[in-house]
Amino acid sequence: MAALAVNRPDDVLAVLLDSEGVAANLISTNTLSATTSVTVDDSTAGQIDVSWSATVDSYAGGYNIYRSDTQGSGYPYLDTLIGQSTSNFSDSILGTITHYYVVESYADDWTSTYSNEANGTPIHTGYLHDDPTPPSAGSG
After folding, report:
1. How many structural domains comprise the chain?
2. Is residue 72 part of a domain?
3. Most buried residue, 41, 83, 89, 136, by most Cβ within 10 Å?
4. Strand boundaries in the chain, DSSP class E
């Protein structure tokens, strides 16, 4: 059996060949690029709009959004958006607590690192406290 010489970039882990021995697909060790330039707009009452620059990787399937009440850590999953070109998300939220957002791109079960962190504080929606429950009759 003759050895097959394939010219491949350094970040390619494997080369899949078609039935005629022609390179058909490359399996890369390259990473999925994270989103960049995450920003928030908290100028609308009860809503924080999160925006970012889309990943440069056209094979990305979309984005996972995470939100924390703690700066720099503890980002519980919030939502998934489908589509590589998607670049914004609106979070309807009550209260006046500052929230911290990060975004990751995904392709199937493969995810990027987190983006930069951006924070926003919702504008007060008219309630006296962070509890959105209106006061009961006779409490006032």
Report:
1. 1
2. yes
3. 89
4. 12-17, 23-28, 36-44, 47-53, 62-68, 77-82, 88-92, 99-107, 110-111, 118-120
